[in-house]
TrEMBL record:
Protein's name in the database: Homeobox domain-containing protein
A family per Pfam: Homeodomain
DNA-binding region: 27-86
UniProt feature coiled coil, ranges: 72-99
Keywords tagged on the record: Coiled coil, Developmental protein, DNA-binding, Homeobox, Nucleus
Organism encoding this protein: Rhamnusium bicolor
Top-level division of the source organism's lineage: Eukaryota
Length: 135
């Protein structure tokens, strides 16, 4: 038995609907390769100003030979990177706190074990009602 194909309202196979469309030929702009000088100046500005006014943006763009869109995109990406870095730093601090607590606990347990060994040297030092088992 041959399966029936689903037809659209024009009587065409529904799978061909997408194949017949003209794909838009919109070219994506290639990635901007910033110079070291441009990055240095953008980073320097970012240190004290995370958001730019339109006037500041125009001034930076013209002084560095970039478009407004490039400056906008660079600052957006840099703020996103800062946020990621801060979240990673928070996780590292939490991990360090946990490790420090574990280390402190282990040191205390070790110290306690040494104290027990020093306190009980032989059976004569033990109270008479304490049972010392040998392992």
């Amino acid at each position: 038995m041959i399966p029936l194909r689903k037809l659209n309202y024009n009587g065409q196979n529904h799978l061909n609907l997408f194949n017949n469309r003209q794909q838009p030929k919109k070219k994506r702009k290639s990635r901007t390769a910033f110079t070291n000088h441009q990055i240095f100046e953008l980073e320097k500005r970012f240190l004290y100003q995370k958001y730019l006014s339109p006037a500041d943006r125009d001034e930076i763009a013209s002084s560095l030979g970039l478009t407004n869109a490039q400056v906008i995109t660079w600052f957006q990406n840099r703020r996103a990177k800062l946020k990621r870095d801060m979240e990673e730093l928070k996780k590292d601090v939490e991990s360090a706190k946990i490790l420090s607590a574990h280390k402190s606990f282990l040191e205390n347990v070790t110290d306690l074990g040494i104290l027990k060994k020093k306190a009980i040297i032989n059976e004569d030092d033990c109270p008479k009602n304490l049972v010392v088992s040998e392992k």
